[in-house]
Amino acid sequence: MTFTPRTRWADAPDSIRTAVAEALGSAVVDHTDLHGGMSPGPAVRLRLADGRQSFVKAVSAEVRAHNHRMIAQESAILDILPPSVSAPRRLATVERGPWIALATTWATGTTPELWTDVSIEAVARACRTANGHEAPRTLPPVVQRIFDFDGWLRVRELGTADDWEASHAGPAAEVVAGWERWTAGDALVHRDLRLDNTAVDAEAGSAVLLDWAYASAGAPWIDLAQLAADVVATGHASGERVATDRAYGLLGTLPPEASRFVVALAGMWSIRAATVTSSVMPGIAAWRRARTAALRPLVSRLIADLS
Questions:
Q1: Which of 107, 126, 214, 274 could join 191 in a cystine, given CB atoms 3.0 to 4.6 angstroms apart?
Q2: Residues 96 and 169 in one domain
Q3: Nearest by Cα to 123 from 217, 240, 229
Q4: Where does this protein have coiled-coil stretches (predicted)?
Q5: Cα 18 to Cα 20: distance, rounded to the nearest angstrom
């Protein structure tokens, strides 16, 4: 989904584009602007004179300081990921004035609009490989990468929007209680698992996990729980019922805390849709409301299981 129009690579300052080419050690012979995501900065595939391809994302701190910090944060994280983790490799990070740019290896695959059984399995496999590693010691605990997991409690305090929220917010808040404790662990966690943060090679049955800025140390099931939530929230090519069934089936292979995590995610999106606005991403509140609505059948089922 495109949350905000991205600056074209050609419209980025000459200084940052020249610095990227110099850091990559080869002239840029062609580029393709990419769209989607939550940053107003350019995202681009570069074709280099030596035959390589590279992915580059850049942003000015004067446009959105948060995304500038995320690029710097991800740059450091990519350098410490274990070699077997399916992630892009950092090639260069350059800064010129308020601008920062990160160049990585090009990830083979595509990012489809909806999940399929093939992409679910490929991404789940990539998650299990990553989560099987102990998190590098420089990564923070996942509690520092989780926000608004008191969402259902705050929804009750703010006032529920409809009958479903009125009947479910209380039990959901009880299910989520103590999340700081039951999300803790020492596994490597991506923590921002969504379909648009993956590149899937359907023929090979493989996937690359993208956008590692929120990587942390946590429980080894967190990414798979977030995958289950996203299958429902983003949607499955075979429809809503299949999406919910696939997510429920995946959660059935995980500890009960994974189901609690999904309930917490729904509460997070619900309270953010109600209270957080963004001039840079004016459509994000509607996106959050749609995700929460899509998750309602699954959340009802999980609350019943956990009660």
A1: 214
A2: no
A3: 229
A4: none
A5: 5
Summarize pLDDT for 226-278 with one digit per residue, the tens.
999 999 999 999 999 999 999 999 999 999 999 999 999 999 999 999 998 87
Q: What is the pTM for the complete model shown?
A: 0.96
Please answer whether residues 108 and 201 qualify as being in contact, where contact means their C-beta atoms are separated by less than 8 angstroms. Answer: yes
Pairwise CA distance, residues 31 & 9, whole Å: 8
Distance (Å, whole) CA 35 – CA 51: 23
Residue type, 116: T
Quick one: which of 116, 132, 112 has its CA closest to 224? 132
31 and 144 together in one domain? no
Q: Which two structure tokens, joined as six digits, stand for 23?
A: 């850091």
DSSP letters spanning 40-73: SS-EEEEEETTS-EEEEEEEETTT-HHHHHHHHH
Cβ atoms within 10 A of the Cβ of 161, count?
15
